[in-house]
Amino acid sequence: MTGERELVERVRWGILATGGIAAAFTADLVDMPDAEVVAVASRTDASAKAFAERFGIPKAYGDWASLAEDTDIDVVYVATPHSAHRAATGMCLQAGRHVLCEKAFTLNVREAEELVALAKEHDRFLMEAMWMYCNPLIRRLKGLVDDGVIGEVRTIQADFGISGHLLPEARNGVLPPSHRLRDPAQAGGALLDLGVYPVSFAQLLLGEPSDITARAVLSDEGVDLQTGAVLSWESGALASVHCSINGGTPVSASITGSQGRIDLPDGFFFPDRLVLHRDGRDPEEFTAEPADGPRTSLKHEAAEVMRALRAGETESPLVPLNGSLAVMRTLDAIRDRIGVRYPGEIN
Fold this sequence. Notes:
alpha/beta, 6-stranded parallel β-sheet, 10 helices
Protein backbone atom coordinates (compact mmCIF):
# COMPACT_ATOMS: atom_id res chain seq x y z
CA MET A 1 0.00 0.00 0.00
CA THR A 2 2.36 2.59 -1.30
CA GLY A 3 2.30 6.21 -0.22
CA GLU A 4 0.68 5.43 3.12
CA ARG A 5 2.06 5.57 6.66
CA GLU A 6 2.72 2.16 8.17
CA LEU A 7 -0.29 1.13 10.18
CA VAL A 8 0.46 1.27 13.88
CA GLU A 9 -1.13 -0.85 16.58
CA ARG A 10 -4.34 1.19 16.78
CA VAL A 11 -6.30 1.31 13.52
CA ARG A 12 -8.06 4.66 13.03
CA TRP A 13 -11.68 4.47 11.92
CA GLY A 14 -14.12 6.91 10.39
CA ILE A 15 -17.85 6.27 10.57
CA LEU A 16 -19.94 7.36 7.59
CA ALA A 17 -23.64 7.64 8.60
CA THR A 18 -25.25 7.78 12.02
CA GLY A 19 -28.12 5.28 11.97
CA GLY A 20 -28.77 2.24 14.11
CA ILE A 21 -26.20 -0.10 12.55
CA ALA A 22 -23.55 2.64 12.69
CA ALA A 23 -24.24 3.07 16.40
CA ALA A 24 -24.04 -0.68 17.05
CA PHE A 25 -20.75 -1.00 15.18
CA THR A 26 -19.24 2.06 16.84
CA ALA A 27 -20.25 0.83 20.29
CA ASP A 28 -18.27 -2.34 19.64
CA LEU A 29 -15.32 -0.48 18.13
CA VAL A 30 -14.82 1.81 21.12
CA ASP A 31 -14.44 -1.27 23.32
CA MET A 32 -11.63 -2.69 21.18
CA PRO A 33 -8.17 -1.68 22.45
CA ASP A 34 -6.61 -1.77 18.97
CA ALA A 35 -9.26 0.46 17.37
CA GLU A 36 -9.70 4.22 17.53
CA VAL A 37 -12.74 6.05 16.17
CA VAL A 38 -11.46 9.47 15.10
CA ALA A 39 -14.29 10.93 13.01
CA VAL A 40 -17.92 10.59 12.01
CA ALA A 41 -19.85 12.08 9.11
CA SER A 42 -23.51 12.58 8.37
CA ARG A 43 -25.49 14.67 5.92
CA THR A 44 -26.05 17.27 8.65
CA ASP A 45 -23.80 18.85 11.26
CA ALA A 46 -26.38 18.28 13.98
CA SER A 47 -26.57 14.53 13.42
CA ALA A 48 -22.80 14.14 13.20
CA LYS A 49 -22.19 16.18 16.35
CA ALA A 50 -24.81 14.29 18.34
CA PHE A 51 -23.27 10.97 17.30
CA ALA A 52 -19.76 12.22 18.11
CA GLU A 53 -20.84 13.35 21.57
CA ARG A 54 -22.55 10.04 22.23
CA PHE A 55 -19.39 8.02 21.53
CA GLY A 56 -16.67 10.52 22.38
CA ILE A 57 -15.48 10.92 18.79
CA PRO A 58 -13.10 13.88 18.28
CA LYS A 59 -14.26 15.04 14.84
CA ALA A 60 -17.75 15.41 13.37
CA TYR A 61 -18.44 16.32 9.73
CA GLY A 62 -21.72 17.46 8.22
CA ASP A 63 -20.74 16.09 4.81
CA TRP A 64 -19.24 12.85 3.51
CA ALA A 65 -16.43 14.40 1.47
CA SER A 66 -14.68 15.88 4.52
CA LEU A 67 -14.53 12.45 6.14
CA ALA A 68 -13.26 10.83 2.93
CA GLU A 69 -10.47 13.41 2.66
CA ASP A 70 -9.39 13.14 6.31
CA THR A 71 -5.89 11.63 6.23
CA ASP A 72 -6.05 10.83 9.94
CA ILE A 73 -8.42 7.98 9.02
CA ASP A 74 -7.14 4.54 8.01
CA VAL A 75 -10.47 2.90 7.19
CA VAL A 76 -14.06 4.09 6.79
CA TYR A 77 -17.10 2.10 7.83
CA VAL A 78 -19.91 2.95 5.37
CA ALA A 79 -23.24 2.45 7.13
CA THR A 80 -25.64 4.28 4.82
CA PRO A 81 -28.67 2.56 3.29
CA HIS A 82 -27.49 0.35 0.43
CA SER A 83 -28.90 2.79 -2.12
CA ALA A 84 -25.98 5.11 -1.23
CA HIS A 85 -23.20 2.50 -0.94
CA ARG A 86 -21.83 3.09 -4.43
CA ALA A 87 -21.53 6.85 -3.95
CA ALA A 88 -20.18 6.81 -0.39
CA THR A 89 -17.74 3.92 -0.83
CA GLY A 90 -16.52 5.20 -4.18
CA MET A 91 -15.82 8.62 -2.70
CA CYS A 92 -13.77 7.11 0.12
CA LEU A 93 -11.78 4.77 -2.13
CA GLN A 94 -10.93 7.58 -4.54
CA ALA A 95 -9.74 9.71 -1.61
CA GLY A 96 -7.37 6.95 -0.49
CA ARG A 97 -9.33 5.44 2.38
CA HIS A 98 -9.81 1.74 2.98
CA VAL A 99 -13.48 0.76 3.30
CA LEU A 100 -15.74 -1.66 5.13
CA CYS A 101 -19.13 -1.29 3.41
CA GLU A 102 -22.43 -2.53 4.81
CA LYS A 103 -24.51 -5.11 3.00
CA ALA A 104 -26.15 -5.50 0.65
CA PHE A 105 -22.88 -4.44 -0.96
CA THR A 106 -24.59 -2.25 -3.59
CA LEU A 107 -27.85 -2.03 -5.53
CA ASN A 108 -26.62 -4.36 -8.25
CA VAL A 109 -23.58 -6.19 -9.53
CA ARG A 110 -22.64 -3.37 -11.92
CA GLU A 111 -22.15 -0.99 -9.01
CA ALA A 112 -20.30 -3.66 -7.06
CA GLU A 113 -17.92 -4.26 -9.96
CA GLU A 114 -17.25 -0.52 -10.14
CA LEU A 115 -16.27 -0.44 -6.46
CA VAL A 116 -13.99 -3.46 -6.80
CA ALA A 117 -12.31 -1.82 -9.78
CA LEU A 118 -11.84 1.41 -7.81
CA ALA A 119 -10.32 -0.47 -4.88
CA LYS A 120 -7.84 -2.16 -7.20
CA GLU A 121 -7.05 1.09 -9.02
CA HIS A 122 -6.25 2.90 -5.78
CA ASP A 123 -4.70 -0.13 -4.03
CA ARG A 124 -7.20 0.08 -1.19
CA PHE A 125 -8.72 -2.56 1.07
CA LEU A 126 -12.42 -3.19 0.46
CA MET A 127 -14.77 -5.58 2.23
CA GLU A 128 -18.51 -6.08 2.43
CA ALA A 129 -19.67 -6.04 6.06
CA MET A 130 -21.09 -9.56 5.94
CA TRP A 131 -20.53 -10.07 9.66
CA MET A 132 -22.04 -13.56 9.44
CA TYR A 133 -18.96 -14.79 7.55
CA CYS A 134 -16.71 -13.60 10.39
CA ASN A 135 -18.78 -15.18 13.18
CA PRO A 136 -16.72 -17.91 14.92
CA LEU A 137 -19.61 -20.38 15.04
CA ILE A 138 -20.44 -19.85 11.36
CA ARG A 139 -16.76 -20.44 10.58
CA ARG A 140 -16.99 -23.66 12.60
CA LEU A 141 -20.09 -24.64 10.63
CA LYS A 142 -18.33 -24.07 7.32
CA GLY A 143 -15.41 -26.16 8.51
CA LEU A 144 -17.71 -29.04 9.40
CA VAL A 145 -19.42 -28.91 6.01
CA ASP A 146 -16.14 -28.55 4.09
CA ASP A 147 -14.70 -31.52 6.02
CA GLY A 148 -17.59 -33.69 4.85
CA VAL A 149 -19.01 -34.33 8.30
CA ILE A 150 -22.56 -34.53 6.86
CA GLY A 151 -21.46 -35.89 3.50
CA GLU A 152 -22.39 -34.18 0.25
CA VAL A 153 -24.72 -31.22 0.70
CA ARG A 154 -28.17 -31.94 -0.68
CA THR A 155 -30.36 -29.08 0.55
CA ILE A 156 -30.11 -25.78 2.39
CA GLN A 157 -32.99 -23.89 3.94
CA ALA A 158 -32.70 -20.35 5.34
CA ASP A 159 -35.24 -17.65 6.13
CA PHE A 160 -35.27 -14.10 7.46
CA GLY A 161 -38.59 -12.38 7.98
CA ILE A 162 -39.69 -9.56 10.27
CA SER A 163 -43.12 -8.37 11.28
CA GLY A 164 -43.30 -4.88 9.83
CA HIS A 165 -46.14 -3.96 12.15
CA LEU A 166 -43.77 -4.34 15.11
CA LEU A 167 -41.50 -1.54 13.87
CA PRO A 168 -42.12 1.82 15.59
CA GLU A 169 -42.82 3.56 12.29
CA ALA A 170 -45.78 1.29 11.51
CA ARG A 171 -49.24 2.86 11.36
CA ASN A 172 -52.26 0.64 11.98
CA GLY A 173 -50.05 -2.39 11.58
CA VAL A 174 -48.53 -1.32 8.24
CA LEU A 175 -45.27 0.39 7.36
CA PRO A 176 -45.90 3.72 5.60
CA PRO A 177 -44.80 4.00 1.96
CA SER A 178 -42.20 6.59 3.01
CA HIS A 179 -40.36 4.06 5.20
CA ARG A 180 -37.05 3.02 3.67
CA LEU A 181 -38.18 -0.63 3.53
CA ARG A 182 -41.03 0.37 1.20
CA ASP A 183 -39.34 3.20 -0.68
CA PRO A 184 -38.04 2.25 -4.16
CA ALA A 185 -35.75 5.30 -4.15
CA GLN A 186 -33.97 3.79 -1.13
CA ALA A 187 -33.91 0.31 -2.69
CA GLY A 188 -36.59 -0.87 -0.29
CA GLY A 189 -38.05 -4.32 -0.02
CA ALA A 190 -37.18 -7.53 1.75
CA LEU A 191 -34.56 -8.90 -0.63
CA LEU A 192 -31.62 -6.51 -0.32
CA ASP A 193 -32.26 -5.74 3.33
CA LEU A 194 -32.96 -9.25 4.65
CA GLY A 195 -32.70 -11.73 1.78
CA VAL A 196 -29.01 -11.02 1.40
CA TYR A 197 -28.46 -13.14 4.52
CA PRO A 198 -30.09 -16.40 3.35
CA VAL A 199 -28.51 -16.01 -0.09
CA SER A 200 -25.07 -15.31 1.38
CA PHE A 201 -25.45 -18.27 3.75
CA ALA A 202 -26.22 -20.67 0.90
CA GLN A 203 -23.37 -19.34 -1.23
CA LEU A 204 -20.91 -19.52 1.65
CA LEU A 205 -21.41 -23.28 1.61
CA LEU A 206 -22.07 -24.02 -2.05
CA GLY A 207 -20.75 -21.10 -4.10
CA GLU A 208 -22.68 -19.40 -6.89
CA PRO A 209 -25.78 -21.27 -8.09
CA SER A 210 -26.21 -22.43 -11.65
CA ASP A 211 -29.95 -21.77 -11.82
CA ILE A 212 -32.43 -19.55 -9.96
CA THR A 213 -36.21 -19.42 -9.74
CA ALA A 214 -38.14 -16.92 -7.61
CA ARG A 215 -41.57 -15.54 -6.77
CA ALA A 216 -42.56 -12.51 -4.71
CA VAL A 217 -45.41 -10.44 -3.34
CA LEU A 218 -44.89 -6.81 -4.31
CA SER A 219 -46.12 -3.63 -2.65
CA ASP A 220 -48.03 -0.91 -4.47
CA GLU A 221 -44.72 0.98 -4.69
CA GLY A 222 -43.10 -1.94 -6.51
CA VAL A 223 -40.79 -3.35 -3.82
CA ASP A 224 -40.95 -6.94 -2.56
CA LEU A 225 -42.86 -7.52 0.66
CA GLN A 226 -41.77 -11.13 0.65
CA THR A 227 -39.68 -13.21 -1.71
CA GLY A 228 -39.01 -16.92 -2.02
CA ALA A 229 -36.32 -18.38 -4.25
CA VAL A 230 -34.93 -21.78 -5.10
CA LEU A 231 -31.26 -21.87 -5.98
CA SER A 232 -29.79 -24.93 -7.66
CA TRP A 233 -26.29 -26.22 -8.36
CA GLU A 234 -24.98 -28.66 -10.94
CA SER A 235 -24.09 -31.02 -8.08
CA GLY A 236 -27.81 -31.54 -7.55
CA ALA A 237 -27.94 -29.42 -4.40
CA LEU A 238 -30.89 -27.10 -3.84
CA ALA A 239 -31.35 -24.13 -1.51
CA SER A 240 -34.71 -22.69 -0.48
CA VAL A 241 -34.39 -19.11 0.72
CA HIS A 242 -37.09 -16.76 1.94
CA CYS A 243 -37.30 -13.18 3.20
CA SER A 244 -40.18 -11.00 4.34
CA ILE A 245 -41.00 -7.59 5.80
CA ASN A 246 -44.61 -8.45 6.49
CA GLY A 247 -44.29 -11.54 8.68
CA GLY A 248 -41.85 -12.76 11.31
CA THR A 249 -40.16 -16.09 10.55
CA PRO A 250 -38.00 -18.37 12.73
CA VAL A 251 -34.83 -16.90 11.14
CA SER A 252 -33.48 -20.43 11.07
CA ALA A 253 -31.33 -22.48 8.74
CA SER A 254 -30.64 -26.12 8.06
CA ILE A 255 -28.08 -27.91 5.91
CA THR A 256 -28.88 -31.49 4.93
CA GLY A 257 -26.21 -33.76 3.57
CA SER A 258 -26.02 -37.35 2.39
CA GLN A 259 -24.90 -38.45 5.87
CA GLY A 260 -26.54 -36.01 8.26
CA ARG A 261 -27.85 -32.54 8.97
CA ILE A 262 -26.83 -29.34 10.77
CA ASP A 263 -29.53 -27.11 12.23
CA LEU A 264 -29.24 -23.48 13.29
CA PRO A 265 -32.58 -23.15 15.06
CA ASP A 266 -32.60 -19.45 15.91
CA GLY A 267 -30.92 -16.39 14.41
CA PHE A 268 -28.89 -18.40 11.88
CA PHE A 269 -26.67 -15.50 10.81
CA PHE A 270 -25.58 -14.73 14.39
CA PRO A 271 -26.02 -18.11 16.09
CA ASP A 272 -25.28 -19.05 19.66
CA ARG A 273 -25.52 -22.76 18.90
CA LEU A 274 -25.77 -25.31 16.12
CA VAL A 275 -26.87 -28.92 16.28
CA LEU A 276 -25.19 -31.68 14.30
CA HIS A 277 -27.28 -34.74 13.46
CA ARG A 278 -25.35 -37.66 11.98
CA ASP A 279 -26.88 -40.91 10.85
CA GLY A 280 -26.76 -43.48 13.62
CA ARG A 281 -25.41 -41.07 16.27
CA ASP A 282 -26.84 -38.90 19.01
CA PRO A 283 -27.19 -35.18 18.18
CA GLU A 284 -24.12 -33.08 18.99
CA GLU A 285 -24.44 -29.42 19.97
CA PHE A 286 -21.81 -26.77 19.33
CA THR A 287 -22.13 -23.50 21.25
CA ALA A 288 -20.44 -20.13 21.01
CA GLU A 289 -17.44 -19.60 23.25
CA PRO A 290 -17.83 -17.04 26.06
CA ALA A 291 -14.82 -15.19 24.65
CA ASP A 292 -16.77 -14.61 21.43
CA GLY A 293 -18.90 -12.05 23.28
CA PRO A 294 -22.61 -11.36 22.74
CA ARG A 295 -24.15 -13.02 19.71
CA THR A 296 -24.91 -9.54 18.32
CA SER A 297 -21.24 -8.52 18.46
CA LEU A 298 -19.83 -6.87 15.35
CA LYS A 299 -16.29 -7.08 16.73
CA HIS A 300 -15.39 -10.12 14.67
CA GLU A 301 -15.73 -8.31 11.35
CA ALA A 302 -13.90 -5.25 12.72
CA ALA A 303 -11.08 -7.50 13.94
CA GLU A 304 -10.85 -9.14 10.51
CA VAL A 305 -10.58 -5.74 8.80
CA MET A 306 -7.80 -4.64 11.14
CA ARG A 307 -5.96 -7.95 10.78
CA ALA A 308 -6.06 -7.62 7.00
CA LEU A 309 -4.86 -4.02 7.05
CA ARG A 310 -1.89 -4.89 9.27
CA ALA A 311 -1.05 -7.78 6.95
CA GLY A 312 -1.11 -5.46 3.91
CA GLU A 313 -4.04 -7.29 2.32
CA THR A 314 -6.51 -5.53 0.03
CA GLU A 315 -9.32 -7.98 0.66
CA SER A 316 -10.33 -10.49 3.30
CA PRO A 317 -10.16 -14.25 2.73
CA LEU A 318 -13.24 -14.56 4.98
CA VAL A 319 -15.32 -12.12 2.90
CA PRO A 320 -13.65 -12.19 -0.53
CA LEU A 321 -14.72 -9.68 -3.14
CA ASN A 322 -15.46 -12.39 -5.70
CA GLY A 323 -17.93 -13.85 -3.22
CA SER A 324 -19.65 -10.50 -2.74
CA LEU A 325 -19.90 -10.07 -6.51
CA ALA A 326 -21.38 -13.57 -6.82
CA VAL A 327 -24.04 -12.78 -4.21
CA MET A 328 -24.91 -9.57 -6.04
CA ARG A 329 -25.33 -11.53 -9.28
CA THR A 330 -27.76 -13.84 -7.50
CA LEU A 331 -29.70 -10.93 -5.99
CA ASP A 332 -29.86 -9.31 -9.44
CA ALA A 333 -31.19 -12.55 -10.93
CA ILE A 334 -33.86 -12.86 -8.24
CA ARG A 335 -34.96 -9.26 -8.80
CA ASP A 336 -35.13 -9.94 -12.51
CA ARG A 337 -37.38 -12.96 -11.87
CA ILE A 338 -39.73 -11.05 -9.54
CA GLY A 339 -39.82 -7.81 -11.53
CA VAL A 340 -38.26 -5.38 -9.06
CA ARG A 341 -36.23 -2.50 -10.45
CA TYR A 342 -35.05 0.62 -8.63
CA PRO A 343 -35.17 4.20 -9.96
CA GLY A 344 -32.09 5.22 -11.90
CA GLU A 345 -30.81 1.70 -12.58
CA ILE A 346 -29.34 1.15 -16.01
CA ASN A 347 -28.69 -2.04 -17.91
